[in-house]
Amino acid sequence: MIDTALDQIALDDIERLVLYGRSEGVTLDFKEAFPSADHKGTRDFLADVTAFANTDGGDIIIGVREDGNGTAAELVGIDTTGLDEALRRIDDQLRNCVDPRVPLFRVRIISLANGRSVLVMRVGASLIAPHRVVFDRSSRFYRRGNRSNYEMSTAELRQAFAASNDLPKRIRDLHRKAVEATAGTDMPCRIQDGPAAVLTIAPLSILREAREVNFTREVAILPPRHTSNLSMVIGLEGVIVHSPVDAQTGGVRSWSINHRLGYLDFAWVIGHQDQGQKLVWPKYFVPELKGIVSFSISRLRSLGIEGPWIAMLTLAGIRGYRIVAGDGYMTDPAWQDPAYLGEIIDDAMAPEALRPFTEGFWRLFGVDRPPASHI
């Protein structure tokens, strides 16, 4: 997979595939031509897409010739005459010949100087895998190997179906543990009393792909709202970074957990009591959320971990708190506590992808039309 958000992939990114001799792999495939409409072309295209969805996702690059050994050799592009019709055709194929339908399939068209184009077809890893190809009176399941697809064995299918039923719950359990950790469960410290945000960021393949990330003090991600005098604690699961412990309350303002399994947890205080009023401040939530997500994805990618990504968010300790929305206006008090704002799955986690979280934040306090500057 190209290490760039799909809508930001440029011609330079494609040219570098050839310049540096990038090889096909579990998340990358090169095709010289657009999938043909004949029997073999349809079957192979459906196998490619479902294989990526059933494994870890990936990019199919149309218009790049490989050298026979899977290495990008030449940027040839494709003729775009009739491309709109061809894209509708493959969309119909995915709708009618894949069960269940692949949840994330997007295409980016990149123009070349010679009038031809390169297509990047991005397939996301699926939480509802396995997906089967139902075509030509047959039903087949595929996975992605090192450079090609293969038909899944009976044992692999049993495992895939079992994982599909269990995977969403297991991923959410990772976040549930982070929420419990704010109270000090299996932690060297706890978050201060009051309203706090708890965020988990992980690659969607977190429970499918065994990994051991060498998080050290040098590469550990710092928590939101951090100040000087941070403490770092080495634990069995990774590196914990936390703000100074308050001598009176025994709590901390924020912490991060850099898990060796390749995912991250954050918790930070987003409000306090002031002269008897329970207040939450958007400036402690919205910009901190966007900043830490962007930096986390960048750091995980630098450590060789690819998306698509899943982010999960809970606000805890907010009951009875209000937002100061500007000009002294106070929102309604929150009454859902803790409040799970759900999960977002995205291949880049750009700030605009986090809008469901920021809008949900305001709705918790009775605001259905939040200020544009605070979402």
UniProtKB/TrEMBL annotation:
List, for all copies, the residue spans of the domain called Schlafen AlbA-2: 24-150
| Annotated keywords | ATP-binding, Nucleotide-binding
At the top level, the lineage of the source is Bacteria
The family database entries (InterPro entries) matched by this protein are listed as:
Schlafen_AlbA_2_dom (IPR007421), Schlafen_AlbA_2_dom_sf (IPR038461)
A GO MF annotation of the entry reads: ATP binding
| Annotated protein name in UniProt | ATP-binding protein
Organism the protein comes from: Endosaccharibacter trunci
What are the leading ranks of the lineage? Answer: Bacteria, Pseudomonadati, Pseudomonadota, Alphaproteobacteria, Acetobacterales
